[in-house]
C-alpha cells in the first residue's frame, strides 16, 4: 500500500506526480521531495516557494522541514532566502547527525556550499501584493489572515513514512519570524511504526500544542487518524480559548501506516489533497460540524474557480 496526503488544493499536482513515483516503487522521501518541489516552483501559489509573499521588508524568507519516520532523522531550514527549493535543503540536512536545523545566513551558506540552486524568489506578482498591502495598511503593517503551509505525509510500498513542510509564512511578518512549519512536533512529525501528521494555520498557536506530535501520539494509542486529528484540534482550540480567549487557525492532516487518513480544522475553507494506491488523486473540502470534520469532494466548479482566482491578472 502506498499513499500521500497534503494540506490545501495547491498540493494536488505535486502529490499526483509523487504518487506516480510511489506507484513505480520509489522511496517515500523521493516522492515527497518531488511533490513539494512542484509546489515550491509554481509562481501562483503565494504562500510557498517562488512567488511566496514577502515579509514587511519585502524579502521572501522561507521555512521548510523533512522527517524520516524510520530513523527520526530531521532536517529543517528557517528564514532562508534566495534558494529555489528549501525542501531539498531540509532533506539534505536530515542526513546530518548535528547541525540539522539551520536558519537565515547559516542555512544559506550551507545551501550554497552544497550546490543547491540559487534563485531570486521575489516575483513581480508578489511585489504587487506587497505594495497593495502597504497602501491598505498605511499606519501599521499587519500579517494577513491565512497561512497556507504545504505539509505532506507519504507512505511507500515498503512501509516507510516521511513528512515534509514548506512555506513563506505570514505575509508582512517581521524579518526573522519563524512559525511552526520547521519545528519538529508542531508543524510535522512522522513515525513509520505509527503514522505521520502535518499542520497549517497560525504557527504561533499551533506551536502551543505541539499538535503534529500529539496526533501521532493519539494514533499510537489506537485512534483512527480522523479521530486523532479531531481530538487534537478540538482540545487545542478549547484550551487556547480558555486560557487566552481566542484561538488562531488550526488545520491538520494525518495518515497512519495502513494508508488511512484524517483531517481536522477549526476554520471554514480548509482543503486537502490525497492520492492512494488504486484511487484517483482528489481534492476535498472540510467542514467542521459540531466538532466532527466532514470531507466533501471538491466540485469542478470549485477547482476551476480556485485556479482562476490565483492566476488572475493583477493591477496596482
UniProtKB/TrEMBL annotation:
One GO cellular component term: cytoplasm
Native species: Dielma fastidiosa
Marked site positions, Cleavage: 148-149
Protein name: Glycosylasparaginase
GO molecular function (one): hydrolase activity, acting on carbon-nitrogen (but not peptide) bonds, in linear amides
Superkingdom assignment: Bacteria
Membrane-traversing stretches: none
Top-level taxonomy: Bacteria, Bacillati, Bacillota, Erysipelotrichia, Erysipelotrichales
Active site, per annotation: 149 (nucleophile)
Residues binding substrate, per UniProt: 177-180, 200-203
Coiled coil regions in record: none
Amino acid at each position: 500500500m502506498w499513499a500521500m496526503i497534503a494540506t490545501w488544493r495547491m498540493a494536488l499536482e505535486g502529490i499526483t506526480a509523487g504518487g506516480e513515483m510511489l506507484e513505480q516503487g520509489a522511496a517515500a522521501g523521493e516522492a515527497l521531495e518531488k511533490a513539494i518541489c512542484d509546489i515550491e516552483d509554481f509562481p501562483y501559489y503565494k504562500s510557498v516557494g517562488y512567488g511566496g509573499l514577502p515579509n514587511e521588508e519585502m524579502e521572501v524568507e522561507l521555512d521548510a522541514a523533512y522527517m524520516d519516520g524510520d530513523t527520526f532523522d530531521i532536517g529543517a531550514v528557517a528564514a532562508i532566502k534566495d534558494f529555489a527549493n528549501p525542501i531539498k535543503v531540509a532533506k539534505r540536512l536530515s542526513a546530518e547527525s548535528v547541525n540539522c536545523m539551520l536558519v537565515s545566513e547559516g542555512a544559506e551558506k550551507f545551501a550554497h556550499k552544497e550546490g543547491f540552486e540559487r534563485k531570486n524568489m521575489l516575483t513581480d506578482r508578489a511585489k504587487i501584493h506587497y505594495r497593495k498591502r502597504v497602501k491598505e495598511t498605511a499606519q501599521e503593517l499587519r500579517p494577513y489572515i491565512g497561512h497556507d503551509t504545504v505539509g505532506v505525509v507519504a507512505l511507500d510500498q515498503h512501509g516507510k513514512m516521511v513528512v515534509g513542510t514548506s512555506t513563506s509564512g505570514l505575509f508582512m511578518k517581521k524579518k526573522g519570524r519563524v512559525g511552526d512549519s520547521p519545528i519538529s512536533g508542531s508543524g510535522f512529525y512522522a513515525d513509520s511504526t505509527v503514522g505521520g501528521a502535518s499542520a497549517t494555520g497560525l504557527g504561533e498557536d499551533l506551536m502551543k500544542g505541539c499538535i503534529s506530535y500529539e496526533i501521532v501520539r493519539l494514533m499510537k494509542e489506537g485512534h483512527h487518524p480522523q479521530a486523532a486529528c479531531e481530538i487534537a484540534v478540538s482540545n487545542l482550540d478549547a484550551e487556547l480559548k480558555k486560557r487566552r480567549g481566542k484561538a488562531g487557525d488550526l488545520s491538520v492532516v494525518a495518515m497512519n501506516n495502513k494508508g488511512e487518513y484524517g483531517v481536522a480544522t477549526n476554520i471554514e475553507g480548509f482543503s486537502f489533497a490525497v492520492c492512494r494506491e488504486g484511487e484517483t488523486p482528489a481534492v476535498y473540502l472540510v467542514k467542521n460540524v459540531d466538532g466532527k470534520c466532514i470531507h466533501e469532494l471538491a466540485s469542478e466548479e470549485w477547482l476551476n474557480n480556485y485556479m482562476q482566482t490565483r492566476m488572475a491578472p493583477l493591477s496596482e
